[in-house]
Amino acid sequence: MRIRLVDVQQSVLKKNVTLAERLRERFGRSGTFVVNLLSSPGAGKTTLLEETLRRLAPELRAAALVGDQATDNDARRLARAGVPVKQITTGAECRLDAEMVTEALRGWRDERELDLLAIENVGNLICPAEYDLGEDLRVVLFSVTEGEDKPLKYPLAFHTAHVALVTKLDLAEAVAFDRDRALENIERVHPGIPVVELSARTGDGVDRWLDFLAGARRAKAGPLAGARP
């Protein structure tokens, strides 16, 4: 039974690799920059994405896909940013995959009309890390309230990310967050990964995140182009 389970898992992942590559080629042809955001529940992913889209909407044709096992609460929140948003309800599945993204795009938005597509993955740092969605930029978030050892507990999510965001910075003092230890743990798991510390609530550090995002978009034809997690 265990051998059969492994075979099925490998087959699913192999299929996802193929579909993700097709998505990547599509997005490359259309010039759409795709961001895949990963975090555990409650890390502030939706709040940050809403603020990001709100600030970018006047300049970029942006849209968002939102993955959740149930409810469209996050999708309705993101719609307040004034961009098209579509919910992907995964049910028992704990992550998005390339097939779900492909199906969500069908009949919804022509990627040639989008400068940026943000994908808010299901709140989970385990399953989503294994699935490429054809993205240009994989972002992993963890909040100061989650503990400094988050990168050590979920190394794959941090190892496959292009940038790590430390969120809810305004609460760091209240929860006695050990910044040096957290940064050291990120570095241990993914040496050299860029780290941005921010608070979407106060706005501290958000400009640095937007600057990083703008730089990544400009570099799409460079090191990040076609990057696979």
Please give a structural write-up.
- With 229 residues, the chain is α/β, with parallel strands linked by helices.
- The protein has a single domain, classed as P-loop containing nucleotide triphosphate hydrolases (Rossmann fold, 3-Layer(aba) Sandwich), CATH 3.40.50.
- It is 39% helix and 17% strand.
- It has eight helices and seven strands, in the order αβαβαβαββααβαβα.
- The protein has helices at 2-30, 45-56, 73-79, 98-105, 150-153, 155-159, 179-189, 206-218; strands spanning 33-39, 62-68, 85-89, 116-120, 137-143, 163-167, 195-197.
- The chain has a seven-stranded parallel beta sheet, sandwiched between helices.
- Helix 3 (73-79) links the parallel strand 2 and strand 3.
- Helix 2 runs parallel beside helix 3 (73-79).
- The longest helix is centred in the N-terminal third of the chain and has 29 residues, at 2-30.
- The radius of gyration is 17 Å and the shape is globular.
- The two termini are 29 Å apart.
